[in-house]
């Protein structure tokens, strides 16, 4: 049985039983994205983060009609003048 992980709002994240409030919210919003990040996306994020000393690594999920249509991964590396 999957472990239930409490979220900041008190709802369960992945593997938990749906609560009345989460079911009601999904009925209001419709069939939205379930919130799972595919392993392929996480792997791309790890590869991009490799070797970054200072900077930002970003994963953007592009969702259309409740489905993951594509993702982008990018990085910004900070450089301080005068440092090696």
Write a brief caption for the model.
This protein has 2 helices and 4 strands; from the N terminus they run E-E-H-H-E-E.
Largest sheet: 2 strands, antiparallel
Give the class from helix and strand content and strand pairing.
Answer: alpha+beta
The amount of beta strand, in percent, is 25-35%
Order of SSEs, N→C?
A: EEHHEE
Number of folding domains? Answer: 2
- Kindly state the percentage of residues in helix: 25-40%
For the biggest β-sheet, the strand order reads 1-2
**Shape summary:** elongated
List low-confidence stretches. Answer: none
Mean pLDDT: 76
Describe the structure.
With 84 residues, this protein is an alpha+beta fold. It folds into two domains: 1-30, no CATH class; 31-84, no CATH class. Helix content is 25%, strand content 30%. A hairpin with a 5-residue loop joins strand 1 (5-6) and strand 2 (12-13). The termini are far apart.
Helix/strand layout:
Blueprint: E1 5-6, E2 12-13, H1 20-29, H2 39-49, E3 55-64, E4 67-77
Antiparallel strand pairs: 1-2, 3-4
What are the key terms here?
84 residues; alpha+beta; 2 domains; two-stranded antiparallel ribbon; 2 helices; 25% helix; elongated
């Amino acid at each position: 049985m999957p472990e239930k992980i409490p979220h900041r709002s008190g709802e369960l994240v992945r593997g938990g039983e749906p609560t009345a409030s989460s079911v009601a919210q999904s009925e209001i919003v419709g069939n939205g994205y379930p919130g799972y990040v595919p392993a392929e996306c996480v792997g791309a994020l790890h590869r991009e983060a490799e070797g970054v000393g200072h900077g930002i690594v970003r994963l953007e999920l592009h969702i259309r009609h409740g489905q993951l249509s594509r993702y982008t991964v990018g990085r910004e590396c900070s450089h301080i003048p005068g440092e090696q």
